[in-house]
Amino acid sequence: MGAMTPVGGTVAQTWDSLIAGRSGIQGLDEPWAQELPVRIAGLVTADPAASLSTREYRRMDRCGQLALVASREAWAQAGTPAVDPDRLAVVIGSGYGGLGTVLSQVRVLDAGGPRRVSPHTLTQIMVNGPSAWVSMDIGAQGGARTPVSACASGAEAIAQGVEMIAAGVADVVVAGGVDACVNDLAISGFAQLRALSTSQGDPTAASRPFDRDRNGFVMGEGAGIIVLEREEFARARGAEILGRIAGTAVTSDAGDIVAADQAIQVRVMQKALAAAGLVGSDIDFVHAHATSTPVGDLLEAGAISAAVGNAVPVTSTKSMTGHLLGGAGALGAIVTLQALRTGRLPGTLNHENPDPEIRLNVIDTTTACTAAKAAITNAFGFGGHSTALVITAA
């Protein structure tokens, strides 16, 4: 596993922060943010330049930088598997790719003309840039894929990686998601949709999944990467197995471009459970998508109740990281794996006033889950994209 998040520059740092209930959401003091209606976000404070060469750093958008640093952590933890390049693949999803580069280079074009535009512009803005850079870094020739499914991108990437291994076309897949678009355009757009929290005061109190007083999500950035392996291949090389992706499901609402469909959310969890050979009562906890929006959290809460019941512990770590968009689902998989491995489940920060319409067992502080064997993590995105991953202990 590898991660670059608002609460840590590695998986260990991220996990320690989540277990301690530390938020990475902060005020935006940059000049470009001063006229925005929302001036808070979850920013990655670890500097990717510290882990990249000068040449790498200059050639990549921040999205690619975060993904490459996280993938190197994951690849190192996996023991740099010796695998036939043709059976090594990369699947890294992103919702918005190099949006930051688009904005900066349009401003360069407007101010200085076409000859001032960077020659790296087009390769930096490609949404497939992160998967391409990672594939080149590890020599993967079995495919470098990029699911673009908004906030479900990272989870869908993991599902695609599992499918490649199950289909027999890959032994190892580096999979995950990334987004890095904390900028004036993205914040303004989400604010105009009335999707962002407008809370004033303490930035760390703004993201409140499932809480009665939630009023929108907080923009975040970051990357989450895991190394998937065919079990026989992993065992043959003596790899440490962290857990299993036991079942995956990907669905589409075929409805509204923004509004979610609760029935489809129920279905995607049920399909993932069926793929894992499990039923709702087998699930020990749920890492919810729950972004802190009034309608979205209510719909997902009802879907979780229908799929696994009301008693199972439920958490959303977006309360501390903000919403990493395309990186959110992959980080959710990492949090789920870590909880199964350590027997501790991070709580939902700021869940102080339970919503009477939500009947879930939302945990608000770190809770023991020492007997947990199976869990679900959800990811939903604009466009009606829904992905559920059932993860089981090693």
Automatic annotation (TrEMBL):
Its EC number is 2.3.1.179. GO terms for biological process: fatty acid biosynthetic process. Residues 1-393 form the Ketosynthase family 3 (KS3) domain. Keywords: Acyltransferase, Transferase. Pfam families: ketoacyl-synt, Ketoacyl-synt_C. InterPro entries: Beta-ketoacyl_synthase (IPR000794), Ketoacyl_synth_AS (IPR018201), Ketoacyl_synth_C (IPR014031), Ketoacyl_synth_N (IPR014030), PKS_Beta-ketoAc_synthase_dom (IPR020841), Thiolase-like (IPR016039). GO terms for molecular function: 3-oxoacyl-[acyl-carrier-protein] synthase activity. PROSITE patterns: KS3_1, KS3_2. SMART domains: PKS_KS. The keyword Transferase applies. GO terms for cellular component: cytosol. It comes from the Bacteria. Belongs to the thiolase-like superfamily. Beta-ketoacyl-ACP synthases family. NCBIfam families: PRK07314.1 (NF005589). This is Beta-ketoacyl-[acyl-carrier-protein] synthase II. The lineage of its organism: Bacteria, Bacillati, Actinomycetota, Actinomycetes, Micrococcales.
